[in-house]
Known about the structure:
The complex is a heterodimer of chains A (220) and B (550).
Chain A: H1 4-10, H2 15-19, H3 21-24, H4 27-53, E1 61-63, E2 70-73, E3 85-87, E4 93-95, E5 104-109, H5 114-130, E6 136-142, H6 146-156, E7 162-165, H7 169-175, E8 185-189, E9 195-199, H8 205-216
Parallel strand pairs in A: 5-6, 6-7
Antiparallel strand pairs in A: 1-2, 2-9, 3-4, 5-8, 8-9
Chain B: H1 36-47, H2 50-69, H3 76-85, H4 90-95, H5 105-134, E1 149-155, H6 159-172, E2 176-179, E3 192-198, H7 201-226, E4 228-235, E5 239-241, E6 249-252, E7 265-275, E8 285-295, E9 303-307, E10 313-315, E11 318-334, E12 340-345, E13 349-350, E14 358-364, E15 371-379, E16 382-385, E17 388-391, E18 400-408, E19 428-430, E20 436-438, E21 443-446, E22 451-468, H8 472-491, E23 495-504, E24 507-516, H9 524-541
Antiparallel strand pairs in B: 1-24, 2-3, 3-23, 4-6, 4-22, 5-7, 7-8, 8-9, 10-11, 11-12, 11-22, 13-14, 14-15, 15-18, 16-17, 18-19, 18-20, 21-22, 23-24
Helix pairs in contact in B: 2-5, 5-7, 6-9, 7-8
Amino acid sequence: xxxxxxxxxxxxxxxxxxxxxxxxxxxxxxxxxxxxxxxxxxxxxxxxxxxxxxxxxxxxxxxxxxxxxxxxxxxxxxxxxxxxxxxxxxxxxxxxxxxxxxxxxxxxxxxxxxxxxxxxxxxxxxxxxxxxxxxxxxxxxxxxxxxxxxxxxxxxxxxxxxxxxxxxxxxxxxxxxxxxxxxxxxxxxxxxxxxxxxxxxxxxxxxxxxxxxxxxxxxx
Amino acid sequence: xxxxxxxxxxxxxxxxxxxxxxxxxxxxxxxxxxxxxxxxxxxxxxxxxxxxxxxxxxxxxxxxxxxxxxxxxxxxxxxxxxxxxxxxxxxxxxxxxxxxxxxxxxxxxxxxxxxxxxxxxxxxxxxxxxxxxxxxxxxxxxxxxxxxxxxxxxxxxxxxxxxxxxxxxxxxxxxxxxxxxxxxxxxxxxxxxxxxxxxxxxxxxxxxxxxxxxxxxxxxxxxxxxxxxxxxxxxxxxxxxxxxxxxxxxxxxxxxxxxxxxxxxxxxxxxxxxxxxxxxxxxxxxxxxxxxxxxxxxxxxxxxxxxxxxxxxxxxxxxxxxxxxxxxxxxxxxxxxxxxxxxxxxxxxxxxxxxxxxxxxxxxxxxxxxxxxxxxxxxxxxxxxxxxxxxxxxxxxxxxxxxxxxxxxxxxxxxxxxxxxxxxxxxxxxxxxxxxxxxxxxxxxxxxxxxxxxxxxxxxxxxxxxxxxxxxxxxxxxxxxxxxxxxxxxxxxxxxxxxxxxxxxxxxxxxxxxxxxxxxxxxxxxxxxxxxxxxxxxxxxxxxxxxxxx
Lengths: 220, 550
């Protein structure tokens, strides 16, 4: 935008007048300046608003609940589950890839985590129902102590193994592929080792059976 | 806003236009026929006025005060403490967002308004200043003797030549010149003239200041959009991974997701705190040292480092600060069936009474047949003062814990997350009438055969703040630039020297007049006197120095 001074200079208005403050505060000049400033401010605000509210919209993801916390990934949109090797609470070595070829329910939990305690009975029930059908269950015990974790397993009658992840590096690896924000999180991994479904909060029986029905192709 | 000086009334200078000129009638809403557009224009003019900008700036400063006086959400334990010690006041302060000031809507409102005000002021002013920096000096006034500084001398040179000599001298001093032109002829007796002006860097400095100020705001916004802050309490001997689920607090910027966290891991190998052992400052910390090892990626090569107060560790673009420390007493709990149901260090948080007297709770949700809970106090150097325990030194010279045991329902199994630092005793019975004191290695047998709790020892913990602020460096650069611009605009004066030569019966009389736009910085008097003397000498010698560039 040419400044009023330059405009005045190019139109050969006497310099003295052009340089006086009155010429600068002429209505036209002032209006242009105000308009430019207003447009700039509006543009900045618009950018900020778009930045704030734009989001999501990736395809291949079906939400099973209103809170968008239970999701199904369509085949072709399933993120590859990162491999890990760790030790179970019972002391046996364990690798995720040893489950290749099977549907695995991977549950991130902690004995200290209140929503994990709330979902534990439902998860144990789903495990009792689906384990005979060939679905494997594996827990990832986060930021926990051995004694507390073992007491939790005894208390809730958990029938499947858990690996210990006190420093949460397994959670770190998984957070790179799914929005894993804490415990509890339950992932359903398909036989090819890809994440087919997830519940990013305390899982209910119906959410888990809905995901497992889709992934295994068998009724719940 | 922000001409760095009070508006000056220089009739020649376009940059001196006062801010938000009061224009009776047109600008006052009281006038008749004031439509919506006029209201909007009026509001915009008010918003972009220096007065409002200063008010907003002041409000911003005022609004940040509670942010430094009150505990903030990035230090949840301190907030909890405040809630405990001010039960009536704290909920009100919380409603006003005073525990998270910098994220409060009212703070954002002030910030955005200030930003709009600055943009609305700086952008037009930038053009004005840029224009002003390019203008030529004004024409020389007729009567130079009326100017604040003036001198007069006679010379044998003809007027045109005398002016040329003066112009040469002034150009040699770096003045910008303007000579008489034919566009507006003057009366014959007015002689000929040259105008000179110097100190345009003042405008450049002013411009720099304004732009840098905008830059600071943009940098801060950049940090707010792309930065993050997180906190994590880390017990000695443990490791954490920088992922959302491992962080106690995570405050991402608007455009940051958990996936943007650097995938590093940090292990606290050892933490040492030393305290002043005697004198009036006894008990004050003298040094902290946290020995950590870290990997930039899980499975990557481990490096070691040291963290101290104000000596952060830089990992993968983030800075890790040591912001707190405390003790984590270790407890082992067996339940009524004799099974170990708890065996872990439990971070206790220092209370307000000082010397690291710390409070905490132990929750044993999987004890049988009933859940167990303990509230405890850890006393690093315990002294019995009239029946109550006090801590007389922050180092663990005589550590004891004092425990109250509860049994019943901890309220953890309904899924509502609760604080790990608070025990909800609503569904519990107290098992011990008085607090039970334990020294390391001692056990407390719970009544009714409900089990035992053993205080096995203690380890230190540290509290880490992980921050990433991409706006930090730009904000620093802009801050320095703003300061530089401010100094330039303060220290450099616009000053003008006019020379007018008239022929008279004895030859030529040369009048020199001088005008400094601001007298505040002083010194122009001396500069003008020496210039006038130099001009006189040059004319008398008939010297015609080569201009050394304008």
